[in-house]
């Protein structure tokens, strides 16, 4: 069942850099990514149902970072709908920095659950976007250009990410949330175009990738 977005609703997007997209540098606070595309398309389709759109994504955030700012950045805004995309920074961060703490799937689940519980209690409608990793080719720079990520590193990331994807699926069922399977969607899309078309570094969407996320998100609401 889709989520009904009523006139005057507040819809919040939150997560990491994929959601952030330089939102603080944009006039409307939405950034240049899928939240902006969703807001624009919704306004075009439903001029009779104005919505307040908010974006509190912050680049580099993990679940624990969201938890630290959850009250002030999310709960205090009392949104009617919250859309969350988080997980890629919880994935094998020690590849970028050997000193980085390794986050287990159990820790990821416990933290994510603590984010969702107060929203569910308040009756907030939830959209959980599955974190994704596209199997691009070649080597890319990460960690401000100090680390080179190739095929072996991406295999390690995938091994780490898959259990966390299952966590998101599990929590969506637990809380009756809408689930946007972005990982599966991009895998299917990449089969015909190649993965780089949707995310040049395998993580951050291209304009086409953001458009695909927006289109999939809009199919979950009415």
TrEMBL record:
GO terms for molecular function: hydrolase activity. It comes from the Bacteria. Keywords: Hydrolase. Residues 14-212 form the SGNH hydrolase-type esterase domain. PANTHER family: SGNH HYDROLASE-TYPE ESTERASE DOMAIN-CONTAINING PROTEIN, THIOESTERASE 1/PROTEASE 1/LYSOPHOSPHOLIPASE L1. This is SGNH/GDSL hydrolase family protein. It comes from Streptomyces mordarskii. The lineage of its organism: Bacteria, Bacillati, Actinomycetota, Actinomycetes, Kitasatosporales.
């Amino acid at each position: 069942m889709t989520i009904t977005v009523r006139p005057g609703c507040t819809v919040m997007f939150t997560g990491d850099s994929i959601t952030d997209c330089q939102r603080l540098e944009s006039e409307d606070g939405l950034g240049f990514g899928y939240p902006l595309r969703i807001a624009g398309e919704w306004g075009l389709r439903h001029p009779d149902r104005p919505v307040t759109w908010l974006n509190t994504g912050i680049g580099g955030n993990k679940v624990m970072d969201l938890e630290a700012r959850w009250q002030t950045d999310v709960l205090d805004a009392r949104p009617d709908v919250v859309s969350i995309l988080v997980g890629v920074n919880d994935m094998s961060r020690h590849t970028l920095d050997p000193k980085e703490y390794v986050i287990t799937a159990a820790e990821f689940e416990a933290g994510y659950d603590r984010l969702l519980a107060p929203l569910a209690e308040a009756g907030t409608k939830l959209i959980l976007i599955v974190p994704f990793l596209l199997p691009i080719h070649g080597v890319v720079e990460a960690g401000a250009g100090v680390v080179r990520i190739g095929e072996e590193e991406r295999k390690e990331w995938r091994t780490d990410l898959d259990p966390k994807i299952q966590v998101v699926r599990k929590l969506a069922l637990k809380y009756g949330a809408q689930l946007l399977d972005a990982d599966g969607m991009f895998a299917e899309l990449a089969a015909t175009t190649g993965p780089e078309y949707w995310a040049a570094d395998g993580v951050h969407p291209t304009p086409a990738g953001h458009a695909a996320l927006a289109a999939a998100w809009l199919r979950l609401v009415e």
